[in-house]
Description:
By secondary structure, this protein is mainly beta. It has helices at about 55, 190-195, and strands at about 1-10, 20-30, 30-35, 40, 45, 65-75, 80-85, 90-100, 100-105, 120-125, 130-135, 135-145, 150-155, 165. The strands form three sheets. Strands 1-2-3-11-8-13-6 form a seven-stranded antiparallel beta sheet, with no helix packed on it.
Amino acid sequence: xxxxxxxxxxxxxxxxxxxxxxxxxxxxxxxxxxxxxxxxxxxxxxxxxxxxxxxxxxxxxxxxxxxxxxxxxxxxxxxxxxxxxxxxxxxxxxxxxxxxxxxxxxxxxxxxxxxxxxxxxxxxxxxxxxxxxxxxxxxxxxxxxxxxxxxxxxxxxxxxxxxxxxxxxxxxxxxxxxxxxxxxxxxxxxxxxxxxxxxxxxxxxxx
Length: 207
């Protein structure tokens, strides 16, 4: 994994520093980024930058975000694993506003050295971590707390005819969703997600 720290000159002199806004970006898989903002807290509350275009550009993300989506879910709701085919494929910048999720991204780029590998990270209102999931990944999450609000910025518009997906518990992916650890006996899925195909035999539309 490669970590890059982006230093931005302080715009608020309240913290008495010159280079105090720090955003750490770590590449977890090729082009898949973990973003950890520097959070400033005091008696008033906290402040952090949740999005910086220049920071992402410095790490090779040169796509514009055109649509924001937000979902509200109680504990044990599982959404995924989803993608959109080209030319409507999407990059997603995801984070949690309240509550927490286990966020999962699977590399489905056929020519990628990490094809079929996945990353699973807890994103929460407490840790304020974010992930950038590039086109060519299937994405999903399970909510670990009630009243979880999940926000994602997308680089392309929703296009129903381009939707695709992979079954969340495909045996060949071997994803640990941490259900037992968080007291989730059976996750709740949409009717559409329940009938997604297994990864074994999956014909990816991404090179």
